[in-house]
């Protein structure tokens, strides 16, 4: 029996699924509401654990999997996670064995935009941008997706890979509720080349967590690509268009919503300079190296 799968959302999950279906010979089409792949920022560094690595190895063709490995971060030899308090006093460490992807390779991390660019390779005309899903109808002849431009698409299966604000979930499971954690975070990245004296050795870990008074937290994680992006693409996947990404330190300042001096509307509407200044204010009095 022939099967055609519709995928709503061209993020990491939807594109990985598309590759898995392609590898299995299953017909599929991906629909993405953004007009272009680079329409908005895709975030920064994301950790890839054993499950993620195994899934990518299973879903991707070998040349794309090798490109993912080549552009993943070189993992520091220290523990998977190290923890300090706000005075820069070490309080603990994660087990270095936790989350090992393979016996011969520790867990890694990728630049999110780079991974998405890799996942977009080889899918060609199966990915359609500028198609915002508004709902679906289901009948005996399959499922019919509706889009904001008035068009429809028909298939046998419709997969909701459209994120936390999923249109499909709202229609299929209207009773499902997204719970607010009452926590907010400001995140950014600092080029490693811009750090005076480089990254302190104590912070050169796969992940560093710093816990301050109350619930205020600072998370830090470096991204160093094993190989220059375009060089790796030219050798392994000549058709892949990868954006050059200089090595950086990703940081995330996190606190309870009531501890921020701004409302949600002000936080989400603020520009980079305001957010950067606020992140520094939230860790005022912390150790100078952490603030730097």
Distance linking N and C termini = 60 Å
- Structural class, please? alpha/beta
Overall pLDDT score: 91
How are the strands ordered across the major sheet? 5-4-13-14-15-12
Report the count of strand segments. Answer: 15
Shape: globular
Question: What does this molecule look like?
Answer:
- The chain is globular and about 65 Å long.
- With 292 residues, the protein is an alpha/beta fold.
- It has helices at residues 12-23, 50-59, 62-70, 112-120, 167-172, 229-236, 264-269, 272-282, 288-291; strands at 4-8, 27-32, 45-48, 82-85, 90-93, 108-111, 127-129, 133-139, 142-147, 152-155, 157-160, 183-191, 208-211, 217-223, 248-256.
- The chain is built from 9 helices and 15 strands.
- Helix 3 (62-70) runs antiparallel to helix 6 (229-236).
What key attributes describe this structure?
9 helices, alpha/beta, four-stranded parallel sheet
Task: Tell me the layout of helices and strands.
Elements: E1 4-8, H1 12-23, E2 27-32, E3 45-48, H2 50-59, H3 62-70, E4 82-85, E5 90-93, E6 108-111, H4 112-120, E7 127-129, E8 133-139, E9 142-147, E10 152-155, E11 157-160, H5 167-172, E12 183-191, E13 208-211, E14 217-223, H6 229-236, E15 248-256, H7 264-269, H8 272-282, H9 288-291
Parallel strand pairs: 1-2, 1-11, 2-7, 4-13
Antiparallel strand pairs: 3-6, 4-5, 8-9, 9-10, 12-15, 13-14, 14-15
């Amino acid at each position: 029996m022939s099967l055609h799968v519709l995928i709503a959302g061209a993020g990491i999950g939807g594109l990985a699924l598309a590759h898995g279906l392609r590898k299995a010979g299953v017909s599929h089409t991906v629909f993405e509401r953004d007009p272009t792949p680079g329409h908005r920022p895709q975030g920064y560094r994301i950790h890839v654990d054993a499950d993620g690595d195994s899934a990518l190895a299973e879903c991707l063709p070998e040349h794309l999997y090798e490109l993912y490995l080549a552009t993943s971060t070189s993992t520091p030899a220290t523990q998977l996670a190290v923890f300090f308090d706000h005075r820069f006093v070490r309080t603990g460490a994660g087990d270095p064995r936790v989350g090992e992807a393979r016996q011969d390779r520790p867990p890694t991390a990728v630049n999110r935009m780079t991974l998405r660019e890799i996942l977009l390779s080889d899918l060609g005309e199966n990915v359609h941008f500028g198609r915002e899903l508004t709902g679906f109808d289901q009948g005996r002849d399959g499922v019919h997706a509706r889009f904001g431009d008035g068009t429809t698409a028909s298939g046998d299966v419709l997969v909701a890979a459209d994120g936390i604000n999923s249109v499909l979930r709202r229609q299929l499971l209207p009773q499902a509720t997204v719970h607010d954690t009452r926590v907010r975070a400001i995140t950014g990245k600092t080029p490693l080349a811009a750090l005076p004296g480089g990254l302190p050795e104590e912070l050169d870990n796969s992940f560093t967590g710093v816990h301050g008074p109350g619930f205020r937290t600072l998370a830090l994680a470096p991204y160093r690509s094993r190989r220059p992006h375009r060089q790796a693409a030219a050798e392994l996947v000549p058709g892949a268009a990868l954006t050059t990404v200089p090595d950086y330190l990703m940081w995330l300042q996190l606190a309870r919503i009531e501890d921020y001096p701004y409302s949600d509307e002000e936080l989400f509407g603020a520009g980079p300079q305001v957010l950067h200044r606020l992140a520094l204010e939230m860790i005022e009095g912390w150790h100078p190296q952490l603030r730097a």
